[in-house]
Amino acid sequence: MFDTRELGRRPGALKRISRSAAAPKDLGIEVIGVPEGATVELDLRLESVMEGVLVTGTARAPLTGECVRCLEPLERELEADFQEMYSYPDADDRSRDADTGDDAEEEDRLFLEADLFDLEPVLRDAVVLALPLQPVCREDCPGLCAECGARLADDPDHHHDAADIRWAALQGLAETMRDGEKDNAPRERGDDPQEK
């Protein structure tokens, strides 16, 4: 929770805050995220406006996860920018006078509670949106062998002589045709045992 009492309700009042906080649980997606309890560095700018407090900020945090191609662990640094308006509790009364009729927007509004605001939902949205959807250990990561699961970056010459099982029937047909060509090859005079 962050306190906005110093701003008062004077439009144009400004306060800057730099703070470190422990990352909440489940701050990320399945393959990458901020570890629970990791230090999140926050640089915030709180600005008092007519309707409430406009919070603009940047969050920096370490990321851990795994490469989606080769499953190797990876570590990154994340920087996420965000901006959110926290309305005064009585701003709801003022907005009813100038009703826009947009109920969905009304539900998404965040309010100050006793001059305090909770940054976690805003931080969570900003971090998740800034995460790579398919993190890779390097841009040209070749991934894993589809047959045996070997990491291809460790062995660039890795290959298997065995044919793909989906092509086995065609390979068998090709071998049959080759054998049939040998049987149907033209024979020279004297090769036929029935001629003798």
Automatic annotation (TrEMBL):
Descriptive protein name: DUF177 domain-containing protein
Judging by the UniProt lineage, the source's domain of life is: Bacteria
Query: Positions of the region Disordered?
Result: 173-196
* InterPro entries, alphabetized: YceD
Q: In what ranges is there compositional bias, type Basic and acidic residues?
A: 176-196
Q: Which Pfam families match?
A: YceD (PF02620)
